[in-house]
Design brief:
By secondary structure, this protein is α/β, with parallel strands linked by helices. Helices cover 44% and strands 14% of the residues. The strands form two sheets. Strands 1, 2, 3, 4, 5, 6 and 12 form a seven-stranded mixed beta sheet that branches. A five-stranded mixed beta sheet has the order 7-8-9-10-11, with helices on one face. The longest helix is centred in the middle third of the chain and has 31 residues.
Length: 522
């Protein structure tokens, strides 16, 4: 007769029992992909924002029930790939099969998160492990978001917290801890719900977690400071619509801008790549734009996408133009879109140009952010902070502009290549988040829609210009004074999450060493 002794365990957080998963089956592989993709519905265009508070629960339950850490890691990886594919599916016409490769590679970032979920929520955890999970599982999720936010890995597009761009309590949270704090609380709510649904021994801990998240949100709502009103700026957005050829586009932009004469605007903003020739080398468009500025009585902020005459290479640049021509300020885009504006490691990945619409020549980068002071017209003295295209996805860029004195954030964008997908709505939604984080209104001007304006609270101002519009719209933009807690304190929520992970890793390592030293030697 064989006698089996129970496995000896020690430590506060014992590893969950391994073996065949009680919910095993071939469906787990596609189930992981679908469960990971499900939260994408919370983002525009569906904008089912309320779904984000429970959308991770199926994925969490799947990973925690995996029969081993290895299977948990696999299902976290597949779910991460599914999430990225769903949020970025509109890139498929441009990148083709390469988007599958990128999703598979970046999906690996969720493996540590999956291992945390399996270790802390797997098996039959008690209240202590669930309490730890309420902190560490959100921190593990943030770690994955933080790494993929590196510009060379695609940038922070589709951060979970960004799905709450139209929810006032979430925008207030963003003013305190940025989009990162919103994401941490969302994952904590999902983790608590998973505990309530699947872990009877720790149901009270899950309910306590939900209560804690609600208390934090309510506390921020009632006691966090708010920006103070400081006048208005009258800003016009010119959106020409879908037009082939830079010459015809310029004609349409000029015609729309002329309709603004006599309307007392302080600034006219054109979209990304609105001018296709370098103004330093070509006097004709320079004179044309100066005449427009005199006609309207305001400076124009155009975006030049052209080869520079004074430096080698192609730049995308925000250039203000007054009644006498370019004012001398210039902002060269710093963070470029991977594959769209340059090919990372072109010597290795240059083949991407043959299977999609990757850039055939790399754009050049600017080296610093610029706060511009308008020198003329009705808006003389107004300080603006320009951003170009997907730079609005980076919280640090708008935060630095606000800290440097910008009164209005101005984004110039173009998503014309993805006109019929989710990209235009997703991009426009970022204006609300960046405005709420910085207490600075943001004007998001595009060539083909969606153009939108948000005030210093992140609330919409005026009407949005959709992808079917070709128009010039004027917005009375409320200005604000004061410095938001997020601008003042920076990414404290990120550092707190990383500190929690480091502490857990250190404690786990020490306990493992103690167990090894206490084990009898044979």
């Amino acid at each position: 007769m064989r006698v089996r002794f129970p496995e000896r365990t020690s430590g506060r957080f014992p590893a969950p029992a391994s073996g065949p998963s009680p919910a095993g089956g071939r469906w787990r592989v596609p189930g992981a992909v679908v469960a990971g993709a499900f939260p994408a519905l919370a983002f525009p265009a569906p904008s089912l924002w309320w779904l984000a508070y429970a959308a991770l629960v199926p994925w969490l339950l799947l990973v925690r029930s995996a029969g081993s850490p290895r299977r948990a890691a696999r299902e976290a990886w597949l779910g991460g790939a599914g999430f990225l594919l769903a949020v970025h599916h509109w890139l498929l016409p441009s990148l083709h099969v390469f988007i599958l490769v990128l999703a598979a590679l970046l999906g690996l970032l969720w493996v540590p998160w999956g291992l945390l979920v399996h270790r802390l929520l797997g098996g039959r955890p008690g209240p202590g492990r669930v309490a730890a999970a309420l902190v560490l599982v959100p921190a593990g999720w943030l770690l994955a978001e933080l790494v993929r936010s590196w510009e060379y890995l695609g940038g922070p597009w589709g951060l979970l917290g960004a799905s709450q761009w139209q929810v006032p309590p979430a925008l207030r949270l963003a003013s305190v801890g940025g989009v990162w704090l919103v994401g941490l609380l969302l994952v904590a709510v999902n983790t608590a719900l998973a505990a309530v649904l699947a872990l009877p021994r720790a149901r009270l801990a899950g309910l306590a977690g939900l209560t804690g998240c609600a208390a934090v949100t309510a506390g921020v709502w009632w006691w966090a400071p708010q920006p103070r009103a400081a006048g208005t700026a009258r800003i016009a957005v010119v959106q020409p619509g879908v037009i082939d050829g830079p010459g015809r586009r310029l004609d349409r932009e000029e015609a729309l801008t002329r309709t603004l004469a006599g309307r007392g605007v302080d600034l006219v903003v054109w979209g990304e790549s609105s001018v296709g020739t370098d103004l330093g080398a070509d006097p004709a468009p320079r004179a044309r734009l100066a005449t427009l500025s005199r006609t309207v009585g305001a400076d124009l902020l155009v975006n030049v996408d052209a080869r520079r005459s004074d430096r080698p290479g192609i730049f995308k640049s925000s250039v203000p133009v007054g009644p006498d021509g370019p004012t001398g300020d210039r902002y060269d885009k710093m963070r470029l879109v991977p594959f769209g504006e340059y090919v990372p490691a072109r010597s290795l990945l240059g083949w991407a140009t043959s299977v999609g619409k990757a850039a055939t020549e790399d754009r050049r980068r600017g080296d610093r952010q610029v706060v511009m002071t308008l020198p003329s017209g009705h808006g003389a003295g107004l300080r603006i902070g320009p951003l170009v295209c997907f730079e609005t996805a980076f919280p640090d860029m708008s935060r630095h502009l606000a800290a440097d004195g910008a009164r209005v954030l101005v984004a110039q964008s173009s998503t014309s290549s993805f006109q019929h997908g989710w990209a235009p709505a997703q991009h426009a939604s970022l204006a609300a988040l960046r405005a709420a984080e910085t207490w600075r209104p943001m004007v998001h001007a595009t060539l083909t829609g969606v153009s939108a304006v948000a005030d210093a609270h992140g609330h919409p101002v005026g009407r949005r210009l959709g992808t079917d519009a070709s128009a010039a719209a004027v917005y009375d933009v409320p200005l604000a004074s004061g410095t938001s807690p997020y601008v003042r304190a920076g990414d404290w929520a990120v550092y707190a999450a990383l500190a929690a992970l480091a502490l857990y890793g250190g404690v786990t390592g020490v306990r493992a060493r103690v167990r090894r030293s206490a084990s009898p030697r044979r």
